[in-house]
Amino acid sequence: MKKILFIFALFYSNASFAACFAVTGATTDCAQATEYQVSVSKVELCADAACTSAVTVADTTASFDIATAAVGAQVGAYANLNTVPVGTYTHIRSTVSSTITYAGDATANCTAKTSTTATLTSSGGVVNADLAAADLQWAVIDQSLYHLVALSAPLTISKTSFPPQVSIDFSTADGHLCVNGTSFPGPPVMAVTVTPN
Question: I want to staple 103 with a disulfide (CB 3.0 to 4.6 A). Which of 5, 30, 35, 122 is the partner?
Answer without folding.
Answer: 35
